[in-house]
Design brief:
alpha+beta; Znf_RING/FYVE/PHD; Znf-RING_euk; 4 domains; Herpes Virus-1; Neuraminidase; 4-stranded antiparallel sheet; 18 helices; metal-binding; zinc ion binding; 39% helix
């Protein structure tokens, strides 16, 4: 913004009295008011309280012990107001000052003004003015340039401040120790040993420091713009969902008799209520973001004006106030949008049910996630060896982090860091590539560092955004890692759940079921820990106490048995196809691996109690029978009957064939198995056996 424009806008006007500033005082939020206006505002509204809200942004400010008069004076405004007065004085001088001094009967109209002499002159007098030796180097400005940046800048450059000691000589030196403006003589006499600087040098240093403060705030303001744009997009999505849902209601309403109209009105009201609730949330977030951004913009605007248009004295006098304002707004947090803003959808049923259930026929309004694509981006991956994206996340700066995984070549495992415009900023390679260990997982801690893990080396590894190694600590078989609201690392191990301090100290640990495949973990805003396993989801509270378990073995709300059953069938179907393909190729090794994986026990290793029991050598036939009874009791998992059953003796003893079954008998038994049934004690489903009957028969024959 040009300095000449500042002189003509509201920058010089108090927002309370709407007059030019008189003794301007600046608050910690960077807003300025007249001293008497601010005093009157506090007397009317705050009644001597030490904290008071800013009349503009409502941000709370602290009143110094000396009252309003002790607040920081806005020297930038004082200086610019002085310049504004000089410009107005120049505009008011209509007649040539030289002609008036010569007592000319009709003085000519002034056409130029000397910035050195501060006098307006006509064309003839200005021409004579530059011919004299003492005024030959003076600068003359035409009257039509009084509002130009050149003239205003010239006036600002000629403003002088007198020495703080003798109050008569122009200042040339700034003492940062005493924070005083002094002349050369006073510096030698009064400031010996102090690291004094020339005014322009000291101002340049403070400008550089202030620039470092302002840049991140400007970037944060841009993020507020992005946030508000995303919120406005979601508002449009909610409005579109409202229109679509209302249209569905009206379409259903046309097919229902008059007795259903009341239900339709209820649905319309429900839609409006749910939509308004969503819009209220978004409007509140936008209002908060707008207010916070206004504070940021005010600080940036004030700082920019000080940097660009304040003279050296202004910068040195106001830099501390600007830095305090910058520190006060740096603590503002950008609101978070809801994880998935939803649209409304009308769930309808068959119209034939209208006679018995009008409400059910009209349906119910339920929120559904809008599937709107916001943006897309392609990450280049190698096809041989095949690479895949294993993890994706974003940080508070809007940067994207992609985890790249390659099972065939672990040295290709890496983390890619892109900015919000999808420009590659850096790459973190696999630190354990030499040992051929996997390297995966991405979580962002409260320091902005990247938390990942290496299961092969039992390590949690932390990197900075620049790829620098921060720390490494031990964690047993880490499958996945997340960060809770306290900044602690929550690690899902192979059979445990552990909470680490960021320095690696174990704070809590709890058992967690083993899985055949990799786990995933997430911490929500309440610090609940969500762990996904092979076939169900477990939810723990912040103390690692199990709250719910969803899925085929769950015991909480929201069971997903049907979905899990379908997934399991799809998994078995894929294994069946793979087994058939292996049989066609004659790959007996792969068939054995699949069979072994399906028949793997949930507890491959006996407990310590069972180990101790099985180490004892069986001494005799009675102990052998007891061991068999114990084995079948554990296998059948039921106690013996309290009353032995009364089994009558057989009328006829049948011959029992103790010979091994033939291949024809085994093939017949396999063919008779029904598909879709549960697997037997060995964990092998019928589909796997029937994939290649000949191979299965050979396996059973050699067992």
């Amino acid at each position: 913004m040009s300095l000449s424009k500042i002189l003509t806008e509201d920058f010089l006007t108090c927002s309370i009295c709407h007059q030019k500033f008189k003794d301007p005082k600046v608050l910690s939020c960077a807003h300025t008011f007249c001293q008497h206006c601010l005093q009157g505002h506090l007397d009317r509204n705050c009644q001597g309280q030490p904290r008071f809200p800013c009349p503009i942004c409502r941000r709370h400010c602290v009143l110094p012990g000396g009252g309003v008069s002790a607040l920081q004076t806005n020297h930038l405004l004082v200086s610019i107001s002085q310049t504004h007065g000089q410009v107005e004085q120049a505009k008011a001088a209509k007649k040539c000052k030289i002609c008036c001094m010569k007592n000319v009967y009709s003085p000519s109209t002034a056409t130029k003004r000397c910035s050195d002499c501060e006098e307006s002159m006509c064309g003839d007098c200005s021409s004579d003015h530059v011919l004299h030796n003492f005024s030959r180097d003076h600068k003359l400005f035409p009257v039509d340039q009084f509002d130009s940046d050149d003239y205003v800048t010239e006036l600002r450059a000629r403003q002088n401040v007198l020495c703080d000691h003798n109050n008569k000589d122009p200042v040339e030196i700034f003492c940062p120790v005493c924070v005083k403006f002094v002349c050369v003589g006073c510096m030698v006499l009064e400031h010996q040993g102090h690291d004094c600087l020339r005014i322009n040098t000291a101002a340049d240093k403070r400008k550089e420091k202030l620039e470092l403060r302002v840049k991140p705030i400007e970037k944060k303001s841009l993020r507020y713009d992005h946030f508000k744009t995303a919120a406005e997009d979601q508002k449009l999505s909610v409005e579109e969902g409202r229109k679509k849902a209302r249209s569905q209601v009206n379409k259903q309403l046309d097919q229902v008799v008059k007795m259903a109209r009341q239900r339709a009105n209820d649905l319309l009201e429900e839609i409006d209520t749910m939509s308004n609730a969503k819009l209220d949330i978004l409007n509140g977030l936008i209002a908060t973001a707008t207010a916070d951004q206004k504070q940021l913009d005010d600080v940036v605007d004030f700082s920019r004006k000080l940097i660009n248009h304040g003279n050296d004295i202004d910068v040195l006098q106001m830099a501390s106030a600007c830095e305090q304002s910058s520190e006060s707004v740096e603590t503002l947090d950008i609101p978070s949008l809801p994880a998935a803003m939803t649209q409304l959808q009308l769930i309808t049923n068959d119209m034939d049910e209208c006679v018995t259930n009008i409400n059910s026929c009209l349906g119910n309004v339920v929120p559904v996630v809008s599937g709107r694509l916001v943006t897309s981006f392609k990450v280049e991956l190698a096809k041989s060896p095949e690479e895949m994206i294993s993890h994706v996340t974003t940080d508070v700066n809007g940067d994207f982090l992609f985890g790249i995984f390659c099972n065939e070549d672990k040295s290709r495992n890496r983390i890619l860091i892109y900015d919000s415009n999808f420009v590659l900023q850096g790459t973190i390679p696999n630190p354990r590539a030499a040992e051929k260990y996997g390297f995966a997982g991405i979580a962002i801690d409260d320091d902005g560092n990247i938390v990942t893990r290496c299961q092969g080396s039992n390590e949690i590894i932390v990197y900075s955004k620049k790829g620098d190694h921060v720390r490494t600590f031990h964690s047993e078989s880490p499958n996945a890692a997340a960060v809770n609201s306290k900044g602690h690392y929550v690690v899902a191990g192979r059979s445990t759940l552990t909470v680490h301090h960021k320095d690696g100290e174990v704070l809590q640990t709890s058992p967690d079921p083993r899985n055949k495949y990799m786990k995933r973990i997430h911490c929500n805003v309440n610090d609940d820990i969500i762990v996904t396993g092979d076939d169900h989801v477990r939810v723990y509270d912040s103390t690692l106490q199990l709250k719910y378990r969803y899925g085929t073995q769950g015991d909480g709300d929201g069971q997903v048995k049907k979905s899990a059953r379908q997934d399991k069938r799809a998994f078995i179907h894929e294994l069946t196809e793979e087994t058939e393909a292996a049989a066609r190729k004659g790959d007996m090794k792969r068939i054995y691996e699949i069979t072994r994986a399906l028949s793997e026990n949930e507890e491959p290793y006996p407990t310590s109690e069972r180990q101790e029991r099985y180490r004892k050598t069986i001494a005799g036939e009675a102990e052998q029978r007891a061991r068999w009874a114990e084995y079948f009791k554990e296998t059948l998992n039921r106690p013996p009957p309290a009353v032995p059953p009364d089994i009558p003796p057989a009328n006829q003893l049948l011959d029992v064939n103790t010979n091994p079954p033939t291949k024809q008998e085994i093939m017949k038994a396999i063919k008779s198995l029904k598909s879709g049934k549960a697997a037997g004690p060995d964990g092998i489903p019928p589909e796997a056996l029937k994939a290649d009957i000949q191979t299965s028969t050979n396996c059973c024959t050699h067992c």
